[in-house]
TrEMBL record, chain A:
This is Xanthine dehydrogenase family protein molybdopterin-binding subunit. It comes from the Bacteria. InterPro entries: Ald_Oxase/Xan_DH_a/b, Ald_Oxase/Xan_DH_a/b_sf, Ald_Oxase/xanthine_DH-like, AldOxase/xan_DH_MoCoBD1, AldOxase/xan_DH_MoCoBD2, AldOxase/xan_DH_Mopterin-bd_sf. PANTHER family: ALDEHYDE OXIDASE 1-RELATED, XANTHINE DEHYDROGENASE. It comes from Janibacter alittae.
TrEMBL record, chain B:
It comes from the Bacteria. InterPro entries: 2Fe-2S-bd, 2Fe-2S-bd_dom_sf, 2Fe-2S_ferredoxin-like_sf, 2Fe-2S_ferredoxin-type, Beta-grasp_dom_sf, Diverse_Oxidoreductases. Transmembrane segments: none annotated. It holds the Pfam family Fer2_2. This is (2Fe-2S)-binding protein.
Length: 810, 161
């Protein structure tokens, strides 16, 4: 049974803060320039590091002479991989299969380079300028080797090998199928049957996911102070706890010797969830020099060396009956790892493996994935991590099926999606969706969009052969968010738990410190988490402060990625708050000379049922701190720790509709309207939710229309700055129209789902479906992202040439 | 080395600088004015935007020596001495015009200059006016709303004078 939005409203009296669009308390510092980014830090005696990066994609290093650089003015030291015998191999947390190939990957490369931007040497100097000047004096000769950049080519016999010692470019293969899982039928057999059945259709397509990069605006920066008993590292990271653990597991430092702090962090989107070789290098050099060291990447370095994402070839086969009912789905995926493995690299495509079935009843499913190495920067998580890729695959295929059967793309979806009475629903991919109402969200979106009117306009413009054609695109999606449960992650060899931790400490004056294991880089944790605690403890919002992002004060946590801060971290906070209330209850009863059974706790106050007698939790706190009159055996103070490990993922859903105008004479695509109706469960702060949706949509639209990391055949990065990698600016996007439906999550007591990744997940297929919808009458049947003017123009002209040839030969 | 004097947020600073020093590095590293930040090395992102003699410029595209004698305004000088936020700051706060806040100093300074040049802009004009400043978090919707609201507030203040 799925709760409706009315049920959510009923709870509001009990929860005055949840659902309130509170302005963010984080804003004031950022608005006045009083933030502290890592690069803002200067410590006494600090030296600056710069690194030498490979200008070639694949080579053996034959000469590497650092002596002239070491003698340059202001230089404190220069090191190559051979000069740093203590450096440990960078760890890969996620080993997806027992025979997965893990190539050697060190903070400083030893003897060879594998992609443009690979690190060859590091210089320490009294200023950044002096360090950069010295880089130019390092004498390197490269013996260039054959290069492979295309993942399909990399799989072929005889392809140049990125790591010759591994004997193959195949990193790992991984699959799942509904027969082995016991969740459905045999997809291969169903597809064979469909091929010979006139009442069924089989649709096959090969789709590509363009390589893109998170492109956070704050470049990564690291400062390490080795001078105190505990070495302190400040880093522009999403994952201070994970960095600390992986540093201790891979480099010459013990966990208790290291404190990692994520101060203000300027964007992440997955781009800052890596444990980076630059972090390891700054630590290694700082410990050698025994002085604080700083490294800040330039934007060009960021484009070369912070991880990229997506970059997949998807071979999809969908079988369906003529009425549109899907009978089977087969997915064969080739995923480009780049040259090395980051902490999650090999596993990102697996996450997609669970989501290709989307919100549809698909009775038979197989997924097979091949992870391959190429001479490119490694890929890893980016907003959605595997799920946007999967959503693109299935949502493009739903449109292809609609075309094949001459059905409206909404209708073909409607005939297949899971209905509200079917929840909890076990998918063929082995997940259990807890709640959702796809009709409700879609109906609302269609109404907001004016779907029928737009279709009528589209017909008119087609008939008039308008040079600017209108296209309508749809995506009905479900996300797998809130990375946890540990038990499930264990089954995937994830290499980490998925729980989240919180401590809540009441202070003697009744104020509250909330310690969270997640860290914020713009998501408004301090505001949203305080709203949650205000409702749980019944204390004023302004009496609460959030402490996070520092392993010294927030000692346990799994950090922020995969939209887990609220659905996992938020629930840890709820659990800690409830423990505080339970700890206060017997003390309140003692103070009120009542039995705990007679007490109720409402709005921050314990009162004896049916009487005016009561005491606030803040008064209870003061009394426990004084500890003069505590019940026998009770511990003073009100604080509690709680670790939450959910029983399931979180499944936000929604319907996105895009209207695009395609100028057939120039190839330019303009998004005219974009409507999305999201179901992210209960909204804690609708303003923050909207902001997350807008940002995600913009990144998703950018993947569809603007952004692509490009390499030449020689492995040269040809989109290595923000001048040629097109991050959209304000005129490139539009005002989005958003709506909400609420089906509460049943897997957490707040009823919340996740929101951070939904926009980036749903927008690419919505936009590409719209572009193709505009162009199909011209004979265009596919286009790869990004749909740039030149690509659209070329597709139109190639289709037109095909039609002409066809006419001639006929 | 060249001796330069700049007035930053109402304080005068005289220093010897290397001729190659960019204004943004002079502000951040020599003067400790870290409110202005660096996002790219191609003058695309606009995070380092400040006002030089009233004009919004990307401080990574100007040498410090070129700013000799100039009056520079940064995000750190926007709020009143008593801490009261400038109307542009208030508008960004009320319209959720920031998330991580890294692009915010540049956005605010560009917005101040833009609204001075175009006191009654349309939404499209606001978007065009901000095209040199990148935000990766907000999708611009909150920022555009903030600048529209700020222009209205600034216009009303002007009319009330």
């Amino acid at each position: 049974m799925t709760a409706t939005s009315d049920a959510a409203t009923d709870r509001d009296e009990q929860r005055p803060e949840i659902g309130r669009a509170r302005l963010r308390r984080e804003d004031a510092r950022a608005l006045t320039g009083r933030t502290r980014w890592t690069d803002d830090m200067t410590l006494p005696g600090m030296v600056h590091l710069s690194v030498l990066r490979s200008p070639v994609a694949h080579a053996t290093i034959t000469t590497l002479d650092t002596a002239p650089a070491a003698r340059a003015p202001g230089v404190v030291g220069v090191w190559t991989g051979e000069d740093l015998p203590e450096q440990g191999a960078m760890p890969t947390a996620w080993t997806v299969s027992e025979d997965m190939k893990t190539p050697p990957y060190f903070p400083l490369s030893v003897g060879a380079v594998k992609h443009v931007g690979d690190i060859v040497a590091v210089v320490a100097a009294i200023s950044k300028e002096a360090a950069e000047d010295a880089l130019e004096l390092i004498d390197v000769d490269y013996d260039e080797l054959p290069v492979v950049v295309d993942p399909l080519a990399a799989k072929q016999e005889g392809s140049p090998l990125v790591h010759p010692d591994l004997g193959t470019n195949v990193c790992a293969t991984w699959g799942l199928d509904s027969v082995s899982l016991g969740t459905g039928g045999d997809a291969a057999a169903a597809i064979r049957e469909a091929e010979s059945d006139p009442d069924q259709v089989v649709v096959r397509r090969t789709l590509r996911q363009n390589r893109i990069t998170p492109a956070y605006i704050e470049p990564r920066s690291i400062v390490v102070d080795p001078t105190a008993e505990q070495v302190t590292m400040w880093s522009a990271t999403q994952v201070p706890h994970i960095v600390r653990i992986l540093m201790a597991m891979s480099q010459p430092i013990e966990e208790h010797e290291l404190r990692v702090v994520a101060p203000d962090v300027g964007g992440g989107f997955g781009g800052k969830l890596q444990f980076t070789r630059e972090e390891a290098l700054v630590l290694l050099i700082a410990r050698r020099l025994r002085v604080p060291c700083k490294y800040t990447e330039t934007r060009s370095e960021s484009m070369q060396s912070s991880h990229h994402a997506r970059d997949q070839v998807q071979e999809l086969t969908l079988a369906a009956k003529r009425d549109g009912t899907i009978t089977a789905l087969d997915v064969d995926l080739t995923a480009d790892m780049g040259a090395y493995l980051g902490i999650l690299t090999a596993g990102i495509p697996l996450l997609g493996g669970f989501m290709f079935t989307g919100i549809y009843r698909i009775p038979a499913y197989t997924f097979h994935c091949t992870d391959v190495f190429t001479n490119k920067t490694m890929t890893d998580a980016y907003r959605g991590a595997g799920k946007p890729e999967a959503t693109f695959g299935i949502e493009r295929m739903m449109d292809e099926l609609a075309v094949e059967l001459d059905l409206d793309p909404i209708e073909v979806r409607r005939r297949n999606w899971i209905t509200p009475d079917e929840f909890p629903y076990a998918t063929a991919a082995g997940l259990t969706y807890d709640s959702g109402n796809y009709d409700q969200a879609t109906d609302k979106a269609l109404e907001m969009f004016g779907y029928d009117e737009l279709r009528a306009e589209q017909r008119r413009r087609r008939e008039a052969r308008d040079p600017v054609q209108l296209g309508i695109g749809v995506c009905t999606f479900v996300e797998l968010s809130g990375l946890a449960p540990s038990r499930v992650l264990g089954g995937l060899n994830y290499g980490s738990g998925g729980w989240e931790h919180s401590s809540i400490r009441m202070l003697p004056t009744g104020k509250v410190e909330v310690v969270a294991g997640t860290t914020s880089h713009g998501q408004g944790h301090a505001t949203a988490f305080s709203q949650i605690v205000a409702d749980e403890l019944g204390v004023p919002f302004d009496d609460i402060v959030l402490i996070s992002g520092d392993t010294a004060s927030s000692h346990k946590g799994m950090d922020t990625y995969g939209s887990r801060s609220l659905v996992v971290g938020g629930m840890a906070i709820v659990g800690a708050a409830r423990k505080v209330v339970e700890k206060a209850r017997p003390i309140a009863a003692h103070l009120l000379e009542a039995s705990t059974d007679d007490l109720e706790f409402v709005g921050g106050r314990f009162s004896v049922r049916g009487t005016a007698s009561g005491v606030t939790i803040q008064e209870v706190m003061l009394s426990t701190w004084l500890a003069h009159d505590l019940p026998e055996g009770l511990e003073p103070n009100l604080d509690a720790d709680f670790t939450f490990d959910p029983e399931n993922f979180s499944y936000p859903t929604g319907t996105h509709l895009a209207a695009v105008e395609v100028d057939t004479q120039t190839g330019r695509v303009t998004v005219r309207d974009y409507v999305c109706v999201q179901d992210v469960g209960v909204l804690v702060n609708p303003m923050i939710v909207d902001g997350q949706v807008h940002g995600g949509l913009t990144q998703g639209i950018a993947q569809a229309l603007y952004e692509e990391i490009q390499y030449s055949q020689e492995g040269q990065l040809t989109s290595g700055t923000l001048a040629d990698y097109l991050v959209p600016a304000a005129p490139d996007v539009l005002r989005y129209r958003t709506g909400t439906t609420v089906t509460e999550a049943t897997t957490n007591t707040l009823g919340v789902k996740a929101v951070g990744e939904t926009g980036a997940t749903a927008a690419p297929p919505a936009i590409v479906n719209a572009v193709l919808d505009a162009l199909r009458p011209l004979g265009v049947t596919d286009i790869t992202m990004p749909c740039t003017p030149v690509k659209v123009w070329t597709a139109i002209h190639e289709a037109s040439a095909r039609t002409t040839e066809g006419a001639v030969t006929a | 080395m060249a001796r330069i004097t700049v007035d930053v947020d109402g304080m005068s600073y005289t220093h010897d600088v290397e001729p190659r020093t960019l204004l943004v590095h002079h502000l951040r590293e020599t003067l400790g004015k870290t409110g202005t930040v660096v996002g790219c090395d191609t003058s695309n992102c606009g995070a380092c935007t400040v006002l030089v003699d009233g004009e919004s410029i990307k401080s990574c595209s100007v040498l410090a020596v070129q700013a000799d004698g100039a009056e520079i305004e940064t995000v750190e000088g926007l709020a009143a001495a008593d801490g009261t936020m400038h109307p542009v700051q208030q508008a960004f706060h009320e319209h959720h015009g920031l998330q991580c806040g890294y692009c915010t100093p540049g956005m605010l300074m560009r917005s101040v200059c833009f609204v001075r040049e175009n006191p009654d802009p349309s939404e499209d004009e606001v978007r065009e006016g901000l095209k040199g400043n990148m935000c990766r978090c907000t999708g611009y919707q909150g920022i555009v709303s903030a600048v529209m609201a700020y222009s209205q507030a600034a216009g009303e203040q002007e009319a009330g004078r």
